[in-house]
Amino acid sequence: MSVLFISDLHLSSERPHSIELFLNFVRDEAVKAEKLYILGDFFEVWTGDDYILPEFEPVIEALKGLTSGGTPVFIMHGNRDFTIGEEFENKTGCTLLDDPTIIDLNGTKTLISHGDTLCTDDIEYQKFRQKVRNPQWIQQVLSLPIEERISLAKSIRSDTREKSSQKSEEIMDVNQSAVEEIMRKCNVQQLIHGHTHRPKQHTLFINNLAAKRIVLGDWYESGNVLYCDKNTCTLKDYN
Question: Tell me: domain 3-238, CATH 2.60.120.650, correct?
Answer without folding.
Answer: no
